[in-house]
TrEMBL record:
This is NAD(FAD)-dependent dehydrogenase. One of its GO terms (molecular function) is hydrolase activity. It comes from the Bacteria. SUPFAM superfamilies: (Phosphotyrosine protein) phosphatases II, FAD/NAD(P)-binding domain.
Length: 565
C-alpha cells in the first residue's frame, strides 16, 4: 500500500484491501473515499467489503465511483464536498491513485488554485496531471497534438490477448514500435483459479508481475484508457493524456458485474458465498469445500457471454469429487442453477458430462438466473424463465454457494465508437479486423466474435491479428490468415480426469491431439496432466513470449482478399 500525500488532510493510493484498514487507522486516517467502480478488476475487493472493514476500526468510508478517464466537473465537485464534510485525514483510492488525483486536481482548479501549483503537487506525488489541467485550460477537451504520444502500434490491455499479440508482433518484426497500455501491476493466469478453488494450485502460481511479462522492446504505458477516437487515430487515457497510433489492437478483456446481483457485493467472501472468478476468493472456495460435512451446496451460471463457460460447473465437479472421496457426498445436496437452457453449448460433450452429474447426484435447474442473495440468511433468489416466456421467482437456501457474476465489456469500450449494439468490439470473425474502422483489430474476451471466451482462444487469435496487421502495414506479402473460432475448455470432472472440450465456430470439434492420445469426448488422465503440468508453462513461456506452438495461423477462407506490400 503506497500512500502519497497531496495535502495535509488528503492522501491518495492505489487499490486498498480490507486488511489494510487497521494499519490506516493506526496511521491516523479517519476517512477513506473509494473512487473505483466495483468489478473493474479480477482481484478487486468490492466497496462493501472495504466499508465493513473501515467501520470495524472506526473509519468512515464513502463511495464515489468514477469510470477511468471520465471524471466530470460534477464528480470533482462531489469529491470536494466529501473532503469538506469528512473527518480528516482522508485517504482517497482507485486502481492506481490517478483518478483520485484527477478529482483533486479538477476540484482545486475549480476553486481557483493556480494550475502550476496543482501540477507541481501532483508531480511530487508521482502523478502526471498535465492532461487533466490542459482540459481545464481548454474548456474540458483533451489536450492537443503538442501533448500527444505516438507509437506505430498501440495495444490496449495487458491480459492474455494483449501481451500475446505484442509478443507475436515482436517475434515477426523486432524493430516494430509498439506501446502496450494497462494500469495493472499484476497479471493473472485466470484459467488456474478453478484449480485453486479445488485445492490443486496455490494462488501464487497464477500471478506474475506485469513488468516481468511485457515483451522486450515494447513500451508499457501504465495507465487506464478513457476513450477511443478512431477518426483521429487516438486513445485518450485517464488524466486526458492522448496516445496516437498508426494501428490499434484492442484487448482489455471483460468486466465482472458483481453488483448485478442484489446483495452479492456485501457478502462475497463471507457467509459461505464464494467465486473462483476472483483471485482472492478462489482459496475461500477450497476452504468451504474442505469444511462442509453436510448441507446444501449451490453453484450458479449467469447468462452468456461469460469467460470460460465451463468454469461454473468445473467448480461443482471438483467440489463434489472431494466430498465423494471423503465419504460426505451422501449428506450434501448439490444444485446447479444455470441461466441457459443446456448444460454445455456443444452437444458432443453433454452426454459424458451428464454421467458426472448423475454420479454426484447434482440437481440441474435450467433457465434460472441468480438475481438476489442474502448471505447472513443463507438464501438465494432466481428468476426462472418459464416455457411460455414468462418469469417467476424461485427461492432456495444454501450452506455454501459458488456465484458467477454477469459479465460485459468494459465501460470505456461499451461507450466507444468501436462497440456493437451489445457493447462488444465489432470485428470480422475471421480476420479479427474491426468491421467499420480501418487499422483497428481486436482479440480476446472483448470481441463480438461468436467463439468461447477462453485463454485458449486468445492463444490462437494472437498470431492471426499479428499476421494480418503486419500485412495491412505492408511488412508482409501474401494472403490474410483466419481465426476458425477455436476455443478450449478443459472440464475438470474429477481430480485426475478432464474432459478436454475443443471446438470452433458453429460447435465444430477441433481436436488438437489424435484420439489415441486424448479423446476429447471422454474424460482422461492425460488431459488432466495437460491442464495441470503443461498448460501453465505453455501460457507463461510460449504464448506470452511469442512462441506459437500449435497456434500457427492458417490461410483465410476461400475468397478472402489478397494483400501485398
Amino acid at each position: 500500500m503506497d500512500v502519497k500525500p497531496l495535502a495535509p488532510d488528503l492522501s491518495v493510493a492505489g487499490q486498498i484491501r480490507p486488511a489494510d484498514l487497521a494499519a490506516l487507522a493506526q496511521a491516523g486516517f479517519r476517512s477513506v473515499i473509494c473512487n473505483r467502480p466495483d468489478g473493474e478488476g479480477a482481484d478487486q475487493p468490492g466497496f462493501p467489503e472495504i466499508d465493513a472493514a473501515a467501520r470495524a476500526v472506526g473509519i468512515e468510508a464513502r463511495y464515489l465511483p468514477v469510470v477511468s478517464g471520465q471524471a466530470s466537473d460534477g464528480d470533482a465537485a462531489a469529491f470536494g464536498a466529501l473532503l469538506a464534510d469528512l473527518p480528516g485525514p482522508v485517504l482517497a483510492y482507485c486502481r492506481t491513485g490517478t483518478r483520485s488525483t484527477t478529482l483533486w486536481s479538477l476540484s482545486e482548479a475549480a476553486r481557483g488554485r493556480p494550475l502550476p501549483d496543482i501540477l507541481s503537487v501532483a508531480e511530487a506525488a508521482g502523478y502526471d496531471m498535465t492532461g487533466a489541467v490542459a482540459r481545464v485550460a481548454a474548456g474540458g477537451r483533451p489536450p492537443g497534438d503538442a501533448a500527444d504520444l505516438f507509437h506505430s502500434v498501440v495495444v490496449v490491455g495487458g491480459g492474455a490477448g494483449g501481451i500475446a499479440v505484442a509478443a507475436s508482433l515482436k517475434a515477426r518484426r523486432p524493430d516494430l514500435d509498439i506501446a502496450l497500455i494497462d494500469p495493472a501491476d499484476m497479471h493473472y493466469y485466470q484459467p488456474g483459479w478453478t484449480m485453486v478453488g479445488g485445492g490443486i494450485f496455490s494462488p501464487a502460481e497464477t500471478a506474475r508481475t506485469m513488468a516481468s511479462l511485457i515483451p522486450a522492446g515494447v513500451r508499457w504505458i501504465k495507465a487506464a484508457v478513457a476513450a477511443f477516437e478512431p477518426e483521429r487515430k487516438a486513445v485518450v487515457l485517464e488524466g486526458c493524456r492522448v496516445v496516437r497510433y498508426d494501428r490499434l489492437v484492442v484487448a482489455p478483456g471483460l468486466s465482472l458485474d458483481w453488483s448485478g446481483i442484489d446483495g452479492l457485493p456485501e457478502t462475497l467472501g463471507r457467509n459461505g458465498v464464494t467465486s473462483n472468478y476472483r483471485y482472492d476468493l478462489a482459496p475461500y472456495t477450497w476452504d468451504l469445500v474442505q469444511n462442509l460435512r453436510a448441507g446444501r451446496a449451490v453453484f450458479t451460471q449467469p447468462p452468456m457471454p461469460i469467460k470460460c463457460a465451463g468454469a461454473p460447473q468445473k467448480a461443482m465437479y471438483l467440489s463434489a469429487d472431494h466430498w465423494l472421496r471423503r465419504g460426505r457426498l451422501k449428506d450434501i445436496d448439490i444444485a446447479f442453477y444455470n441461466a441457459g437452457a443446456v448444460l454445455f453449448g456443444v452437444k458432443d460433450y453433454v452426454a459424458p458430462l451428464m454421467e458426472y452429474v448423475r454420479r454426484y447426484d447434482a440437481q440441474l435447474h435450467f433457465q434460472h438466473r441468480l438475481t438476489r442473495i442474502d448471505g447472513p440468511g443463507r438464501r438465494a433468489w432466481f428468476t426462472r424463465t418459464t416455457g411460455d416466456g414468462g418469469t417467476e421467482t424461485v427461492e432456495t437456501d444454501f450452506d455454501i454457494i459458488h456465484v458467477v457474476p454477469p459479465q460485459r465489456a468494459p465501460d470505456f469500450v461499451r461507450a466507444s465508437p468501436l462497440a456493437d449494439a451489445g457493447g462488444w468490439v465489432e470485428v470480422d470473425p475471421a480476420s479479427l479486423r474491426h468491421a467499420r474502422h480501418p487499422g483497428i483489430y481486436a482479440l480476446g474476451d472483448v470481441t463480438n466474435a461468436p467463439n468461447a471466451k477462453t485463454a485458449a482462444a486468445a492463444r490462437k487469435q494472437a498470431p492471426v491479428v499479428a499476421h494480418n496487421l503486419l500485412l495491412d502495414m505492408g511488412y508482409l506479402r501474401g494472403d490474410e490468415v483466419a481465426y476458425d473460432g477455436y476455443g478450449s475448455c478443459p472440464l475438470t470432472v474429477e481430480r485426475g480426469k478432464i474432459l478436454l472440450a475443443e471446438f470452433g465456430y458453429g460447435g465444430k470439434l477441433l481436436p488438437s491431439f489424435p484420439a489415441w492420445l486424448i479423446d476429447g469426448t471422454k474424460p482422461s488422465h492425460m488431459a488432466w496432466l495437460l491442464k495441470e503440468r503443461m498448460l501453465p508453462p505453455i501460457y507463461w513461456k510460449a504464448m506470452l513470449k511469442g512462441r506459437e506452438w500449435m497456434a500457427t495461423p492458417r490461410p483465410g477462407p476461400q475468397g478472402a482478399g489478397k494483400r501485398a506490400a
